[in-house]
Amino acid sequence: MLRAALSPLGEREFRLLFLGRAVSLFGTAFAPIALAFAVLDLTGSASDLGLVVAAGFVPQVVFILVGGIWADRLPRHHVMVVSDLLAGGAQVALALLVLTGDAEIWHLVALQVIRGVATSFFFPAAQGIVPQTVSARLLQEANALLRLTRNGTQIGGAAAGGILVAAIGPGWALAFDAATYFVGAAFLLALRLPRELTMPERHFLRELREGWDAFRSRAWLWGIVLQFAFVNAAGVGAWAVLGPLVADEDLGGAAAWGFILAAQSAGFILGGVFTLRYRPDRLLLVATLAIFPMALPILLLAVPAPTVVIALAAFTAGFGIELFGVFWDVAMQQQISSDQLSRVYSYDALGSFVFIPLGAAVAGPVADSVGVAETLVGAGVVIVAATALVLLIDEVRNLRRRDVALAPSAP
Fold this sequence. Notes:
Blueprint: H1 2-5, H2 12-28, H3 31-42, H4 46-73, H5 76-100, H6 105-133, H7 139-168, H8 170-189, H9 204-216, H10 219-251, H11 254-275, H12 283-289, H13 295-301, H14 307-335, H15 341-353, H16 356-370, H17 372-390, H18 394-398
């Protein structure tokens, strides 16, 4: 079983992609804790934290479609390298400001905007590159391994980040994150992909329209993206903004929040291991059902329950989210032709991210107005309701997996 699960690593290009992502993502696991407590150290304001979190997502709404087009036009690993270098530079500047005591909220907002622009180009390229680096028969295993890499690094990264922030402050955690972006870029630069796998430059609006046509023609695709427009807005506002606030006030601070995030990442890992062998026929039905537990740790934060109880709920939620993520990627990569895949992923990201800045920005003011507990309960209800509604779509319930990925369509 283990040998079969690791078989994608026998292919050179996938192995380099795997290593590049692993190094970068380990540092990235430090960032949410370090950034959250950098803001709380500066002002102690949930509204300010929401503003900083939102700043990282606004550029993704604005630029993600452009990122998708360029990821289909250019060698995708080159797009990823430039994005990593840009994000690393932003984190270097942020770390220096925090370490020198010169950071202000507007600095954090501006640098998160730069990091968000980098993500806008990195995400569609990273999603679209997977079928180019691994054999079609190993696609599910490759996706599971990449997600296991992200989640495995988050366990150590979140726990270490929480301890590091509690011990010596957030600046060094941000500096470490910056360094891992540069190391990850070096691995990605070594990839060798055929030039013919990229799309010749044509007309920007025509390329945009082609991606939109591929997106809107599939009810399962736009239906789940619409679901996550609300799920992500509620989840980010509750988890990324109000979660650290509850941890700071009621659970013991950064170390407790790092423990909870590490438990969630452990759930991600177990979910990823499970998907290495579990191959359901109705991919999207299983994936959607697995999202319901996402509401549980948010509702427990509203109590707030003891740290260990919230961590167990976060573990369960992480398991379900990981099932969704792997099966969603497999469905996308099997159903969408490779020459359109990055553009379709960019529409996926746009719809899924569009309300996140709003959710992050209003979480603090809403909590100030109606109460933190009430806001967390409302977020949990939104997640459950949006997930239940998407099950009304026939294709979500009945879409079947394919044995191999689609070949690129003719230009």
